[in-house]
What does this fold into?
Amino acid sequence: EPEVTQTPSHQVTQMGQEVILRCVPISNHLYFYWYRQILGQKVEFLVSFYNNEISEKSEIFDDQFSVERPDGSNFTLKIRSTKLEDSAMYFCASTLTGRDIQYFGAGTRLSVL
Amino acid sequence: AQKVTQAQTEISVVEKEDVTLDCVYETRDTTYYLFWYKQPPSGELVFLIRRNSFDEQNEISGRYSWNFQKSTSSFNFTITASQVVDSAVYFCALSDWGGGADGLTFGKGTHLIIQP
It folds into this structure.
């Protein structure tokens, strides 16, 4: 069964460094999403992406975040200058249409030291 | 603005007991979707169910059942004859029907502990 793949599973970085989290959505999907879950808290929507542009974004998704679909298979989330409070699990999801069920990848745990 | 409230932070039951997880939502939309996701200790998010706001019929899938009541804005989840493998954090979520790439609004989750 097709699945969303995220790499790496765990990323450790120093405060102030740039990180790129990678996601390979399900191959024929057109809509892509990033969510964040700070440890022990709820899952929060960051951004959605369709047709090579941001479709929706939350107030969490400020100028330090960016998303990109650099090729036909990857979908990335870049954090320009990481802060301690960026430490969280980041989940990627994809759908064929905007109304489909969002299936999530296994997540990338980001630890900012 | 949308909001999902899961008032039960943690529930602990003994195996084989039935348990109900509560979910109350707020939305100004007349059409929307409701979801339940499971997050086991390994951390991934596992989709369990989606209901649309048109359909208030209860749903049963094996030991799982869901009760959607629009009048009380609730979408509760019951596990019958619970098992240790059901131990996880369960999230209720809401999205609108718009058809665009809308994000899900999650509740804070209920940590369910099933003791052997």
